[in-house]
Structures are given as C-alpha cells and as structure tokens.
Amino acid sequence: MSTENDETIEVYEKFGQNYLDRNKKDSEADPHYLERRRFYLENTTKDLPKDAKIFEVGSASGNEIKILESLGFTNITPSDIADFFIDHLRNEGFSPAKFNLITDEFPDSYDFIRCSAVLVHFKKDEAKAAIVKMYNALNPNGICSFSVKLKEGHGEEWKYDKDIGAKRYFSYWGKDELADFAKGCGFVDIDIEQQGGIRACWLTCTAKKPA
Questions:
Q1: Total domains present in the chain
Q2: How far is CA 63 from the centre of its chain?
Q3: Distances in Å between the alpha carbon of 19 and those of 22, 77, 82?
C-alpha cells in the first residue's frame, strides 16, 4: 500500500470528526444533497431484490447505509478502514467490517458494491486494481457504483482542506479514461455521471457485471 494512502488514512483517524462535521455543514447548505443521493441509490438498485447482498466500501458517516435500509434492503455490510469511522458506525447501530480495499479480499460475493469517495485517495495503479477487485467480487448481473474525481491539468496532488485541518492525497481521472478502463475490466451497461460539487467535479461510474 502506498505511503500516500497510509498518510491519508492517518488524517481520517486524527481528523475524522472534522470530516463528519464538514460534510454535515455541506449537506445543510444544500438541502437537496441527501435527496439526490437517495434518488441515485433508489434508481441504481431498483431491479435488485430486497435481500440482495450489498457491500459498501468506506461507509464513514453511514448516511448511505441508512438510505439503503430505508429502501428496504436487509443484507448490507458497511465497512471502513479508519478505526474512527468504525467506532462511529458502531455508535450509529451498525456492525461494520474493518476493510482495506487495497490489501484485503472481499469476504463474499455481492449483488451491489458501493464505493463512494474512496478511490480518490488511491494512487492510479491502486485504484485500477481495486476496480478489478470489485468486479471480481460481484455476482453475475451484480452492480458496482464507484466515484473518482476529475480535475483538469492535475494527475495527483496533496490538497489542504481548512475545514478538516489537514492535507489529503487525491488522484484524478478523465471521463473517457474511466469509461475505457471499466469496459476493459469486463463491465457492461456503463454509465458515468459528471457532477460538480462544492469542492470538485465528481465522476460516478455505475456498471454491471454480465451474467
């Protein structure tokens, strides 16, 4: 695992509460933020049975787990690598797995894998290996949803966030680059949504493993 990822994990261990507070402030400033997330997750999972096996990589606040539960899904595994977020998720009533997408193997196969705002902190080769790992952990017809960042003129950088109080490592993708890589992994029905945000332009890839 790269030192960039190691050091970024340490930031979340030390400043995890600042991260949660920052995200809460952002969502309060945008009253439709959680509504958009719910719409996306509802639309993405609409063809899955309610007992579908779901794994979320990097659950952090647990907000998306709460949305999935509210949609009726009953077989969800939250996870995170930072002990701070593991403790937070337990306090929220979840039973999270401690999971490192770079070094750990998925404990099972899944119908839906969600990985939001995680690959952004991986070196590009680590992110590519992680996408392949998620593909391999899907059941036939399984769906994978993951996000990266687009930033013109940047391949990678350490970026300081004053609300968090530390620098974090980020890598950046092009939209065509992401689509081509997902296709090369074997994914089908690939959809990449580009969405601006308060701090960055996000690329969310939703794709399926063929039957």
A1: 1
A2: 12
A3: 5, 22, 12
* Distance of alpha carbon 120 from alpha carbon 160, whole angstroms: 14
Predicted local distance difference test score (pLDDT) of residue 63: 95
Q: How confident is the model at residue 199 (pLDDT cuts 50, 70, 90)?
A: low
| Domain assignment of residue 68, given as a range | 3-208
Distance CA 176, CA 180 (A): 6
CA-CA distance, 52 to 76, in Å (whole number)? 8
Token output for 176: 């065509």
Q: Say which CATH number the domain at 32 has.
A: 3.40.50.150
Neighbours of 75 (CB within 10 A): 15
Is the model's pLDDT at 84 over the cut of 90? yes
Tokens of 61: 């606040």
C-alpha span between 130 and 128 (Å, rounded):
5
Where are the extended beta strands (E) located within 41-86?
Answer: 53-57, 75-77, 79-80
Which DSSP state fits 172? Answer: B
Q: Please enumerate in sequence order all residues whose Cβ is within 8 A of that of 31, keeping only pairs 6 or more positions apart, or say none.
A: none
- Summarised one tens digit per residue, pLDDT across range 127-161 is 999 999 999 999 999 999 999 999 877 899 999 99
